[in-house]
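Teaching assistant here, posting this on the class forum so everyone can see the example we discussed in section. The complex has two components, and the goal was to see what a joint structure prediction looks like when all of them are supplied at once.
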Amino acid sequence: MLAKVWNYLGLALTYLRFNFKTHLEYRAAFISQILAMILNDCVWVLFWTQFFERFPVMHGWGATEVITMWAIAAAGIGIADTLCGNAAQLAALIARGDLDAWLLYPRRLLPHIVLGKMNASAFGDTLFGYAIYIAFVHPDLQHFLLFSALTVSVAFLFIGFNILVGSLGFFLGNAQSLAEHLRFALVTFSTYPAGLFDGPIRFLLYTLIPAAFVSYLPIEALKEMSLGVAALSLAGSIALTAVAALVFNYGLKHYESGNLLIMKG
Amino acid sequence: MNNLKKYWAVASISAKSNLAYVGEVGSRLVFLAIILYIFMRLWKVTYEHSGVQQLGGLTLPEMLWYLVLTESIIMSGPRVTQLVDEDVRTGALAVQLVRPLSYPLYRLFSTMGERSVRFVITFGAAASIALVLVGPAPNWHWHSLLFAITLPLAFILDFLGYFLVGLGAFWIEDTSGPMLIYSRLTMILGGMLLPLPLFPEWLQGPLHMLPFASVVYGPARMFVHPNQAECVQLLLNQFIWIAVFAVVVTAVYNIALRRISANGG
């Protein structure tokens, strides 16, 4: 079992190195996308920090909480799209019948597909998340370690969610637009305090659009330095990723080849 | 007159081809509903916490209807920069230049055709959601249609900004970074989330003068608080900025054309 885990970790590192080298071939575009994403994130954080400072509408929510929420969400999305950039493209790959080429690869199909691409701007998200957390929250070592662990947990959540909504393509045919909007919905809900919502919407944030595992539990875990809450957040991410993998494997049986002839290097 | 007919045909074909994809709007509705719901919650809590009836001169229902307009303007924006970028990088621009059409005008009319359809559909959907959430627009009367006069000019101005960014493809590898920044500036400085009177006082004057306010805030403000004097001022600002952008776009386009080198075949 452990040998298998090491094997797949090795595969992930190999893909990471390859994808990184590919982006370095277009160095100027790569750097400009990273900088643009950092600037984009800065604009939003500045805006919402000002908003919650001017209207302290959420009890216990000030600049620190807004920055922590954005730092966790940005770093989580960043890690997810850096490592598994293809997870967000899954619906398109299925719709075009592009899985054919991947089916020939050794090992399981899903890791190959999701690891196959890196999103350049996601580097900017990751850098931004860690940089603002260190620069503005000034965490001690324990907080920083917990923050790092939580960003990995959030990354798993986003990867799992991307696979889950992308796999809808197996059942609906073309689910590109639906998957994209569901992804936007998760990102949008993840960047607002979960305390804003109550009733059925709160339930929704723990189930269909699991933003509470991004913008609520991790913030609480860091505030209280609670490993229990952090474990709950991680459990949610692992459960979602497991369900996503099951749905993908089940959906794969419905996959229809696109008879597409492509060259893959 | 003949020229006008040509470009009118471009706009009309673009509008018709977009009408064929009305179904795609269905999934966009989900996202729109989520955004409007989040903002309704956020502003509801903000009004309650502030203990006032009006913020920035708007009541809660007016604020939501303001957001209906700003979101519809932003979400209806076509992919102008990406199309220009693609045309430049793939060399498709060379083919366009052979046609008896001015490329910038072709793109302008094609965008206007597409955007008019997208705006009507998005606005219709957003207005239906707002009707359910807060009821009809409080101050609506025939003067509110003043916004319809300012809207086409807002779209032209918006087009010119994104077209200019797209022309950057003649000099840089990838324009997605600058486009991201430009779109965020339009959203935040244009008042998509926060009406300009809610910005710090020292910032309001400059923000009103910038082109972004003429694209987003101005038309939305005309809808919720129609005022003839403000409308005239807005139209004047729009004309001035369109003239400025048109001159810059023409100059940059002419310089860019000298960089085109095409091989036959």
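For the discussion questions: Chain B touches chain A through 30 residues (CB under 8 Å). The CA atoms of residues 152 and 245 of chain B lie 15 Å apart. Think about how each of these relates to the inputs above.
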